[in-house]
Amino acid sequence: MYVYKYYPQYEESMALCEFENIFHEPYEKYFFTDYDYDYKRSVFIKERLTIFKESNDPKEIIAYLNDAHLYYENFKVIFYKNDEVHVPYEERLSLCHRLSEPIAGTTKLHEPDVELAITKLNNIYYFGLLERNRDWHRYEVKPHSYSHSLPLKVARCALNLGVGNDISQSIIDPCCGVGTVVLEGLAMGLNIRGSDINRWVSYKARLNLEHFGYDPLLIEKKDIHDIKEQYDLCILDVPYGVYSNCSVDDQLLLINATKSFCKRLVVITHENYKERIASLGFVIRNQCMYKRGNFARYITLCEVEK
């Protein structure tokens, strides 16, 4: 069971788009599937419950535990509260106590190493291993950054939208700035590298990679038009004229340039260029949006038209 959470005001579009791209099913906040997805890749998956036993009667789960001979060091059994079913406190407390008794090992009530959880949805109790997604923002504070750097949630969404379930793809970020997308891709275990035409910016990006223990040479100073290697995917956050003059035509030239080294593209733009991107010979596969205040980012997945 994967638990999705997001802020509807400005993240809903990204969360639903990512969900559809990963699971290929209609969105559910509490989503049950046999697919084992690396939940740490997504900023919208807050918890994952690996289900050991399910039943409409908690006694059956206790009987399962009596036969399973589970052993954990420093574990805790909790009742996972959800938004759909309310279970009274005393009932929750009693159930967790009864579930803990058959499990061998040592308990730890504060900051346990292992969390086992039971929850109730649609009159069914689900018991299993609970994992929380807490570390996705560990690269948020970088030694070198600037005010208009790509938000981490947008970077992760763009990567997940482009990669889907194939993490073996080779990825390039040809306007990488201070390396936000590259850092997040490396944290997700992806095969990614970056470049930037600005010598000083690419230097700061290399310092950011080195600070977090990655090979700084994964980022180099290079003009997008000089990229000769072929990649499976390109993530392009186009410059939009905050620190330099970059007109709409200039931005479209950068988008069009990616066709020489990549056939699949996730492009991030300040305005909705969907029709203009299509006019360049791309097929639009999906699009979502992130907006805070008056500043919007459009995340568009497209492929070179065959």
Please give a structural write-up:
With 306 residues, the chain is α/β, with parallel strands linked by helices. The protein has 2 domains: 2-132, THUMP superfamily (THUMP fold, 2-Layer Sandwich); 152-304, Rossmann fold (3-Layer(aba) Sandwich), CATH 3.40.50.150. It is 27% helix and 30% strand. It is built from 8 helices and 14 strands. It has helices spanning 12-23, 58-68, 89-100, 152-163, 180-187, 199-211, 248-257, 274-279, and strands spanning 2-4, 30-31, 45-55, 71-79, 104-107, 114-121, 124-132, 170-173, 191-196, 219-221, 233-237, 264-269, 282-292, 295-304. The strands form 2 sheets. It has a 7-stranded mixed β-sheet. Strands 10-9-8-11-12-14-13 form a 7-stranded mixed β-sheet. Helix 1 packs parallel to helix 4 (152-163) and helix 4 crosses helix 5 (180-187). The longest helix is centred in the last third of the chain and has 13 residues, at 199-211. The radius of gyration is 23 Å and the shape is elongated. This is Ribosomal RNA large subunit methyltransferase K/L-like methyltransferase domain-containing protein. Pfam families: UPF0020. Residues 153-243 form the Ribosomal RNA large subunit methyltransferase K/L-like methyltransferase domain. InterPro entries: RlmKL-like_Mtase, SAM-dependent_MTases_sf.
